[in-house]
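dude i think i finally got it to work??
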Amino acid sequence: MPAPAAPTPATDDLPALPPLSTQAETLIGLGVHETAGLSAAEMRDFAKAAETEDGGLLAVHPDRAPASIVAPLLRRDGKPGFVVVDMPDVDLFSPLDTIALPDAPLYVLTDVDRGDHMANWSPDEALPALTTQHRTPLLLTEGLHWVLQQPSALERNRCFMTIGSRLRKANGALDARTPAIWISNGTGRDGRERRNAPKAGWCWAGNRHTWLGFASTTTRRTQASAVRDSGSGR
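look at this
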């Protein structure tokens, strides 16, 4: 199969994210602040201090709120999200070495993009292309936070991968699984009762899928600093 054409600018037609203060209230209402070991006041204060005209996505550091905790908080058609049964090690997936997370329990992602224009690329093809664009792929937890705050970010045939999270084997090599978030068809081990539910799963790093883009961001920042990930290392 030939290599995909060079990526074009994203055209994701999504509404703006809610203000950070609104996002904070959503997380507080779900008890995420307690999971992260924060008070409601601390989360509200951070959102207030970090608010800018550009907005952004409020995220909790994965060490404070792992994917196994955040995924079930998602809702679609009244059904809770879930992690696929063959990913019991989901919380062991960690950021790529080229991704520098802020050393803080809370941070903000700016210019979040679903990467629809990269549908039918493989993760192995998409990662260097994103690096060239000075973008960095979302972590699985960041993608879950996005869908939590903006459910419309997840659409049938327009779902996305979060290849910033990878699992390292004992020998240091990357596990071939790459995380993704999509909508269950209620087949197989998902169970019919989960049809249309948000789903955190995985795909092989070398495989392409026409219905999966590659979610990415340009900057991860706290209220006092910004960390730009260019894929060139920390």
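The helical segments are 20-29, 32-35, 40-50, 67-70, 123-132, 140-149.
im so relieved honestly
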